[in-house]
């Protein structure tokens, strides 16, 4: 997928992942989807699964939220490549699923932005069992 140079400032690019994780942690699927372009892809690289387009991404998050009691992300490091419209994050994910299982994972996300400042591609690397299906 070709990356279009971002029209956002460095600060706005850096703020977008936190806004996204805040929406995920609040289990607000509409706020999560507001970060994605309609034709975006979300890939869990470590599980070899890709969700294509807003409808598949919505379904995945709806299922994830339904299976979760609590979700919390903490960004530990962030790298912004402003001219390319790319951001990489290193974060912790701590959550409890409805079945009582606990997750305490170390993950990295890679965000590619389109010209409107929406995610056109997100790639996730997870340490542990993928709770996103």
Name the descriptors.
133 residues; alpha+beta; six-stranded mixed β-sheet; globular
Tell me the helix content.
25-40%
Ends apart, CA distance between termini: 23 Å
Q: Report the total helices.
A: 3
Q: What CATH architecture label applies?
A: Roll
Overall number of structural domains: 1
pLDDT < 50 stretches: none
With strands numbered from the N-terminus, the spatial order across the biggest sheet is 2-1-6-5-4-3
Largest sheet: 6 strands, mixed
CATH class: Alpha Beta
Secondary-structure element order, N to C? HHEEHEEEE
Shape: globular
User: What is the strand content?
Assistant: 35-45%
Record field, number of beta strands: 6
CA-atom Rg in angstroms: 14 Å
Let me know the average pLDDT: 91
Please give a structural write-up.
This protein has a single domain (10-126), classed as Roll (Nuclear Transport Factor 2, Chain: A), CATH 3.10.450. It is globular, with a radius of gyration of 14 Å. The longest helix has 16 residues, at 10-25. It has three helices and six strands, in the order H-H-E-E-H-E-E-E-E. The chain has helices at residues 10-25, 29-33, 53-66, and strands at 36-44, 49-52, 68-81, 86-97, 102-113, 119-126. With 133 residues, the chain is an alpha+beta fold.
Q: What is the secondary structure topology, with strand pairs?
A:
Blueprint: H1 10-25, H2 29-33, E1 36-44, E2 49-52, H3 53-66, E3 68-81, E4 86-97, E5 102-113, E6 119-126
Parallel strand pairs: 1-6
Antiparallel strand pairs: 1-2, 3-4, 4-5, 5-6
């Amino acid at each position: 997928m070709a990356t279009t140079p971002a029209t956002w400032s460095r600060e706005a690019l850096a703020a977008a992942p936190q806004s996204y994780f805040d929406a995920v942690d609040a289990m607000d699927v509409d706020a999560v989807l507001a970060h994605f372009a309609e034709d975006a892809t979300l890939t869990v690289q470590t599980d070899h699964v890709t969700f294509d387009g807003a409808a598949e991404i919505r379904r995945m998050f709806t299922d994830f939220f339904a299976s979760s009691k609590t979700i919390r992300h903490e960004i530990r490091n962030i790298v912004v490549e402003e001219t390319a419209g790319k951001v990489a994050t290193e974060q912790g994910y701590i959550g409890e699923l409805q079945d009582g299982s606990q997750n305490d994972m170390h993950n990295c996300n890679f965000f590619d932005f389109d010209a409107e400042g929406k995610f056109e591609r997100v790639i996730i690397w997870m340490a542990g069992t993928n709770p996103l299906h």
